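User: Sequence recovery, please. Input:
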């Protein structure tokens, strides 16, 4: 009984975490969906579409301007639909405003919000304010990892994205949370990494429970 209860406590939070797929630039200057509700631990997976878009974090009060220590994917001049994926882990349920840092894209409505507040600071209000401002791109890729279709990290090194909008070259980053990091993470991350850790822990608990049962 005790072992079953322990296993349920471990597996329930893991089952609740979810992957949230978001297309970037599919069919125009849009994020789809543009309003997302996410829980702590959920993974935002941004799939990039041609021609050249990005994901950058800002605040409601400063649309199209980067937040300090916020998320930035860098510019993604992709030619294949949806195969380049930037994954961000949700650390809390605060509102996160995101925009495309490509020139004029944010002013033309390419923005989204994760966990919008119940009142005020709406995405519609953000877009209205964005029309009267200029776009600024963050200097450094941060806040996430690039993954392949299996959930493994494909990031190889830390780089900066200072070439600005309309860049014809892309770069990758190895930040694994929503804040910048200087470490390199060439190993598995996201859902795949969590699954490996969970499996090892459950195996250990199962062996321990068997030994205890034999001793009774």
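Assistant: Recovered sequence (216 residues):
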């Amino acid at each position: 009984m005790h072992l079953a209860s322990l296993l349920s406590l471990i597996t329930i939070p893991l089952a609740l975490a979810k992957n949230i797929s978001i297309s970037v630039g599919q069919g125009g200057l849009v994020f789809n969906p543009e309003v997302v509700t996410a829980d702590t631990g959920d993974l935002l997976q941004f799939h990039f579409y041609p021609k050249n878009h990005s994901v950058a974090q800002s605040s409601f009060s400063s649309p199209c301007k980067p937040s300090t220590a916020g998320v930035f994917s860098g510019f993604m001049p992709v030619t294949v639909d949806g195969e380049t994926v930037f994954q961000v882990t949700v650390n809390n349920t605060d509102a996160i405003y995101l925009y495309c840092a490509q020139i004029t894209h944010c002013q033309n409505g390419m923005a989204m919000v994760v966990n919008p507040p119940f009142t005020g600071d709406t995405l519609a209000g953000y877009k209205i304010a964005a029309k009267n401002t200029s776009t600024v791109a963050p200097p450094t890729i941060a806040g996430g990892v690039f993954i392949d279709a299996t959930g493994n990290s494909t990031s190889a090194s830390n780089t900066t994205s200072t070439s600005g909008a309309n860049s014809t070259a892309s770069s990758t980053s190895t930040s694994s949370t929503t804040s910048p990091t200087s470490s390199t993470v060439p190993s598995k991350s996201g859902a795949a990494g969590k699954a490996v850790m969970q499996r090892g822990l459950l195996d250990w608990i199962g062996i321990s429970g068997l030994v205890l049962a034999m001793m009774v």
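The two ends are 14 Å apart (CA to CA).
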